[in-house]
TrEMBL record:
Ranges for domain Calponin-homology (CH): 12-132
GO biological process, one term: cytoskeleton-dependent intracellular transport
Keywords, comma-separated and alphabetical: Coiled coil, Cytoplasm, Guanine-nucleotide releasing factor
A Pfam family reported for this protein in Swiss-Prot or TrEMBL: HOOK_N
Protein name: Calponin-homology (CH) domain-containing protein
GO cellular component terms, A-Z: centrosome; cytoplasm
PROSITE patterns the record matches: CH
Length: 212
């Protein structure tokens, strides 16, 4: 994407509530102050992996590449580690299944300076937010959110709903442990399962079309 087209999109993205949250959540290693370097810091995965480790200090630590230097392979490795940790945390600790499409690390690694790259980063920050506000240290993260301005806090609250109360994005698996679903929840759960099944079939068919 041409820089004159992408730069305004990047500037808008960096002003979004999700970026405001993730900047408040951790301790930035510092960059040269440009919008691009701010985005690259997220993109390289080092900073975001550090936040995830704070969220889940019990996780098996996988070594990330500390010097990415615009190497797409190293970036993909770092982001793959992060997404595995996020997915595992939802499933094993929170007893939740991430049903929304996971962020595409190949896009983030190879074509990050694009509208699709920004959308994949948005999904990544959204899932990370869901981990933060449900972890053992959630009060700390919520306190940091409270330091932000009113409109940003309201938007973040809406994002939290996306990953805690929207079964199209994240499915609660705790009912598997406890037995039968309450009758009032069964209809909604069945509709959601049908929705996810249809999406999986559509994705499978799309993949087949690509390979034909």
């Amino acid at each position: 994407m041409e820089s004159e087209v992408f730069t305004p999109l990047l500037e808008q993205f960096l002003l979004t509530p999700l970026v405001a949250w993730v900047k408040a959540a951790g301790h930035s290693s510092g960059n040269d102050g440009t919008k691009l370097s701010e985005y690259i810091e997220l993109l390289d995965g080092i900073y975001l992996n550090e936040i995830m480790l704070e969220i889940n200090p019990k996780a098996t630590v996988q070594r990330t590449n500390k010097k990415v230097n615009n190497d797409s392979t190293l970036r993909i490795q770092n982001l793959s580690i992060l997404i595995r940790q996020i997915k595992s945390y939802y499933q094993e600790t929170l007893q939740q299944l991430v049903a929304m499409p996971l962020p595409n690390v190949l896009v983030l690694g190879r074509n990050p300076l694009s509208e699709q790259g920004l959308e994949e980063m948005r999904k990544l920050l959204l899932l990370l937010l869901g981990c933060a506000v449900q972890c053992e240290k959630k009060e700390e993260y919520i306190e940091r959110i409270q330091t932000l301005d009113f409109d940003t806090k309201a938007a973040i609250a809406s994002h939290i709903q996306e990953v805690t109360h929207n079964q199209e994005n994240v499915v609660d698996l705790q009912w598997l442990e406890g037995g039968d679903l309450p009758p009032e929840d069964l209809d909604s759960f069945s509709r959601n399962m049908a929705f996810h099944l249809k999406r999986l079939v559509d994705e499978r068919d799309d993949q087949l079309e690509v390979h034909v």
